[in-house]
Inverse folding.
């Protein structure tokens, strides 16, 4: 039988003990769990960043993976903790909208509030619910506990408004939703929408003071130091600088506008 997989996405960083402690809690309940660090470098308190990271990651994991997604500016407040079974996956998170892309992609599924004290820490810290509420819930799910054992069903889990491109007849206004470690500007414009728009001709892409006149296949299609536009690994439009940082080169970051028009 395959080991249960528990995958973590947090804004905790790795300089402190928080991540290791959560893993210890999971292993104390489910010693056979395979633990995966998706990332712990989400922007602190940034629920939208957490949601976009989850959207880029979850579908590449095997069915039955349990995701612990903790970006929680409301820790210790009245906001709920939730667990959800959506499609082939399960998720444990604060009820602050960070699971929005999973709800949108996989449907409403089944969601419960984490209210059963049997499946949380003996002491519930108001500043570290990742340790005392979310990690135990994920571990018990990995042990085979049914979702509805963790608490009552709910139908009003929070959603957030995710960034969407504005697509018109003569142009598209996309938005940078993430700047990765390499300085690539990852946008909210998907491959299929871009291809439909450019089906009748070329493309002109403007970001900051730069204009790019074609979609490259990969970074190596342009000279070192040159800007390019391409479809990146998240299947969305990406603005990059070969062997450099597009973000630094252009002086832009998340929220920047990328304008697409048809080329001449």
């Amino acid at each position: 039988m395959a080991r249960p997989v528990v995958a973590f996405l947090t804004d905790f960083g790795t300089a402190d003990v928080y991540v290791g402690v959560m893993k210890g809690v999971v292993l104390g309940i489910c010693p056979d769990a395979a633990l995966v660090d998706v990332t712990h470098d989400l922007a602190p308190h940034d629920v939208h960043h957490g949601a976009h990271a989850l959207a880029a990651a979850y579908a590449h994991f095997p069915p039955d993976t349990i995701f612990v997604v903790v970006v929680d500016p409301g820790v210790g407040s009245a906001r709920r903790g939730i667990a959800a079974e959506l499609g082939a996956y399960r998720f444990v998170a604060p009820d602050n909208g960070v699971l929005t892309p999973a709800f949108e992609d996989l449907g409403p599924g089944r969601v419960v509030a984490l209210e059963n004290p049997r499946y949380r820490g003996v002491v519930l810290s108001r500043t570290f619910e990742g340790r005392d509420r979310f990690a135990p819930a994920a571990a018990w799910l990995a042990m085979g506990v049914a979702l509805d054992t963790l608490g009552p069903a709910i139908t009003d889990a929070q959603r957030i408004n995710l960034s969407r491109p504005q697509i018109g007849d003569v142009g598209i206004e996309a938005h940078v939703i993430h700047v990765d470690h390499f300085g690539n500007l990852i946008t909210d414009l998907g491959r299929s929408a871009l291809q439909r728009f450019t089906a009748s001709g070329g493309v002109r892409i403007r970001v900051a003071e730069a204009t790019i006149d074609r979609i490259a296949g990969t970074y190596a299609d342009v000279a070192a130091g040159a800007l390019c536009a391409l479809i990146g690994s998240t299947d969305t439009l990406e603005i990059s600088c070969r062997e450099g940082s597009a973000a630094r080169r252009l002086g832009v970051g998340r929220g920047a506008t990328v304008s697409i028009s048809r080329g001449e």
Summary: The chain has two domains: 5-149, 166-262. The helical segments are 18-29, 47-57, 100-106, 129-142, 191-197, 246-250. Residues 127 and 137 are 17 Å apart (CA to CA).
